[in-house]
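My main concern about presentation is that the manuscript never shows what a single data entry looks like. An entry of this sort, consisting of the sequence and the corresponding C-alpha cells, reads as follows:
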Amino acid sequence: RPPRSTLFPYTTLFRSLSFILLTLIFSFIIFRMGFYATDNSKEDTSLPAGEQYRERIDTINASIERFCSIGYEKVSVTSFDGLQLYGRLYEGDKDKPVDICFHGYRSNPVNDFCAGGRYLAGQRHNVLIIYERACGISDGHVISMSVNESRDAAEWIRFFRSDALLSSAPRW
C-alpha cells in the first residue's frame, strides 16, 4: 500500500469530480422540473388541483366558459428564434387602448384573464391574450423566465403596429 501522501491527490480529485457530477445531475433535474415543458399542444382550461379552488370552482369554470364564448381571432407571430407563438385577439374600437395580457408561470391566458379579459373586451378595448412560449398551443419546450419572453413581447407589439391597431401605447 502506498503511503498516504501519494493517495491524497487522487482522493481530492475523486471528491471534486463526484461533486461536479452530482451538481450537474441536480441541475439537470431542476431544469427538467422547472423550465422544460413536455406537452404544449393543447388549449387546456382545467384548473390546477388545490384546496384554494375548491370553494369557488363553479364560479371560476362559469367565468372561463363565458370568456370562451366571446368571439375572437386566432393570431400568431414568429419569435426571433423561429417559434410560432399564438394568441387570441378580441378586437374592440380602434380608438380604445390595446391591452396585451401575459399569463403566469406554467399557466394559460384563458384561465388567468377569464374575468379581466372579459371586462376589457366588454369595454371595447383591443385585448390580446397570448400563449407564451412552451405554454398552451405556442411552440417551444423551454420556459426562460423572461430571458426570451421579453423579446416575444416586443414581437407582439410589432404585430399591433403593423396591423394598425395600436392607437396608443400598450398598457402592461
